[in-house]
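INPUT
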Amino acid sequence: MSGIVWLASYPKSGNTWFRMLISNLATEGDRAADINDPDERMSIASARLPFEDVTLIESDLLTPDETDILRPRVFEALADGSYEVPSTLPWRNRRDWPTILKVHDAYTLTPEGEPLLRAAQGAILVVRDPRGVAPSFANHMDCPLDRAIALMASPETTFGMLAGKQSLQMRQKLLSWHAHARSWLDQEDVPVHMVRYEDLKRDTAGVFHDAMHFAGRRITRGEAERAARLADFARLQAQERAKGFAEWPSRRGFHSFFRRGEAEAWRSELSREQIARIERDHAEMMLRLGYSLVEREAI
Amino acid sequence: MSFHYRISGLSVASELALPGAIRVADPLDSGAEVTVRRVREIAPVAAPQILGPNWAVDGDRFFLRVPRVANFLITAGNDIAMQVEQGIEESDAVVFLLGTAFGVLLYQRGRIVLHASAVLVGGSAVLFCGKSGAGKSTMAAVLNERGYAHVTDDVCCVDFDGKGRPVVLSDGRMLKLWLDAVTEIDARARKGAAVRSMIDKFYVEPASPLRVSAPPIAAIYALREQRAPLEAGIETPAPLDATQILRRGLYRARLMATMGLSATFLARVMEIQKQAGVHYLTRPFAMAAMPDTVSRLEAHWRSLGLIGTGG
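OUTPUT
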C-alpha cells in the first residue's frame, strides 16, 4: 500500500512549479526534467481517465454532482494501489513512495455527505498571497483583472464546467480563495503541511525538502537543492519559450504560463482599489496566513 | 418485446426504447441474440469474484451501479436487466445501457471492443480512438458530413472475417455530440434527444448512414491534440507504441482484465495491429482547423490506396 498525498492549492499558487521540483528529483546529472513530461490530465485528481478506468462509467455522461459521489471511490483505489495512474515517470511508480497528486478542489463534501478527498494520507497545501494570485489567474482565464478578482471572491467558482461542451477535466469546486484555504486548514480528516508560495520562493530547497519529508519521501538536502536549481523559474520560462508548454494549449494565444513568478509583482500590477478589494474580500484568511494588509494600513 | 435493434452486429429485443440505437424494421422471427429488460429490483451479486467500487463480477454475471441513476445486471452475453432508481426517468439511464452495459455484454461474448468511432473510406473502416474528450465523435461527424458513411461511435466492436481480416461489426448507433459540435458542423437538423436531460450532449443522426455490414479495418488513428511540443500531422508510431495505443484504446480496458480475457485478447490485438495500420493523428482542437485535418487525412488515404487520386 503506497498511498496518496495531495498537492492541494488554489489555481495559480505554484502547484505546477512544485510538481516540477518533484519531477527534477528523478533526473540524472545536470539534466532538467522536461516541463512537458508530467501529464496534466492524469496527474490531477479531477482527471477523467482514472475515474473512467475505475468506475467503468463515462464521466461526461454524469452530472458533476453524480461524479462527486463516485470520486472518493477512485481516490481509494489509487490509495490502496488497486489502481495505478498510467505513467511514464519513474518516480511515480516507485512503490515505496506515495503518489503525489495535484488537486485544485476545495475540501468539500459529496452530495452523500462524504468528504470528497479523504482517501489521502496527507496534503501539502500550497497557498499564495491572493494579490499575487489575481494577476496570474486573470492571465490563466484570459479575462480582465477585475473579473479574476470577482471569481476569487465567489463561493460558486468552479473549474471544469463549460456550457454546451466537454471540459477537459471533471468539475472542481474551488470556492472563493479564502474558503478554499479554510476548507483545507479546518478539516480534520487529512493531515496538512502548509507551504506558502512566498516562502518557497525565498528558500526553495529548504521548504521543498521539508514538504517531501512530510509526504514520506526522505530526500536529502542535496537532492532538494539540485531540484531547486533545475526547476528555477528562469529555466522553466526558457523551456516554455523554446518548446511551448503542453498544459498551456496554443489556443490560449500568446500569453505564457510561466508568467513572472515574482512574489511581490502584484504591487505594480494591481491598482490601489483592486488591492483594497482583495484585502476586503479575504482579510481574515490573509491575516491568518501571515499576509499583511497594505491598504488597510494606508487607510 | 416491443423494440428491435441491431447493435454491434447483434440482434437485440428490448422492452425499453433505446434512443441512440437504430431500429430494425423487420425483426427476426427466430428470436434475438440479446434481450434487454426492465426490472423492479436487482439482487446484489452474492459472492463476487472481483469487486469494483460500483461493479461486481460473479462468473457470467456482471453487476454495474450508476449511483442515483440505475443498476444493471448483464448476464452471459445475452441479457441486460436495468433497474432505474426512484425518481429517475428511464430515458435518463439508457445511455449507460448502450455504453458500459453493452460493452460488458460484448466482452462476455469474447468480442474485442475498442473505444473508437469509425467511418467508411472506400469500402473499409477507418477508426479514431482516444480517451474521452479526444474528439472521436466530432471527427466522425465531420467526415460523415463530407460523405464518408457512419460506421460506429464510441463502442467499436471488432471481429475477424472468414479470411482472418479484422472487421468492424457495424453498429447502427447514432453519434453523441456536444452542443457546440452540433452547432459547428451545422447538424442541428439531425439533432435528436439529449443523451440525458441534464447534459448538453445530443444524439445526432449520421449524415451518411452505412450500407455495408462488416467493413474490414484499413487504418486506426489515435487522436492527439496538437499541444507543444507536438506538431500537427500524421505519423506512424513504432510497433511497441502501436500495441500500447491499441491496448489503451480498448473500451474500458479494465473490464477485459476483470473478465479474464487478457491473454487471448492481446494475441488478437496484435493481429489487428499487424493487419490494420496504427497512426497518430495530431491536430489542433479548434473547429477552424478541421478542413486542414480532413485534407491531411484524405492525402493519407490516397497514399494508402483507400481512395483514388481523384478525391
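end of record. The longest helix of chain A spans residues 272-288.
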